[in-house]
Amino acid sequence: MSVQVSSRPGKGQYSETEAAEQLGISVLQLRTMIRSHVVDKDEDLNNVPVHTFQPSDLLILRLLTGKQTGSDAQ
Fold first, then answer.
1. Are 27 and 34 in contact (CB under 8 A)?
2. 24 lies in a domain?
3. 31: how many CB neighbours lie within 10 A of its CB?
4. Cα 65 from Cα 59, distance rounded (Å)
5. CA-CA distance, 20 to 13, in Å (whole number)?
6. 19 vs 14: CA distance, rounded Å
7. 47 occurs within a structural domain
8. What is the pTM of this model?
9. Could you tell me if 19 and 58 are in contact, meaning their C-beta atoms sit under 8 angstroms apart?
């Protein structure tokens, strides 16, 4: 297993578009994942104020997509 070390600090917050790009999915797919895994009903989506995502959010969402990170893929 190889570990990539970045000389720049990690990003603290990601916009919806940036989060989708990091996950390798479209914004529509990201919204669909949130609807199916975070809220019970579409009406509840209005009560979820997700405008930014933390790195930990992206980790969980990546697990839900089933996609591996670049350093994990072999």
1. no
2. yes
3. 15
4. 10
5. 13
6. 6
7. yes
8. 0.65
9. yes
Question: Is 36 inside any structural domain?
Answer: yes
**Residues spanned by the domain of 51:** 14-65
* Statement: residue 7 has pLDDT above 60: no
Distance set, CA 54 to CA 14, 34, 42, 61, 74 (Å) = 6, 14, 23, 11, 26
Query: What value does the mean pLDDT take over residues 52-64?
Result: 89
Is residue 54 a part of any domain in this protein? Answer: yes
Q: 7 pairs with which residues across the strands? A: none
Q: Report the chain's terminal Cα–Cα distance, integer Å.
A: 9
Sequence-ordered alpha helix ranges (H) in 1-74: 16-23, 27-37, 55-65
User: Rounded distance, CA 38 to CA 61, Å?
Assistant: 11
**pLDDT tens digit sequence for 21-54:** 999 999 999 888 887 877 766 666 666 666 788 9
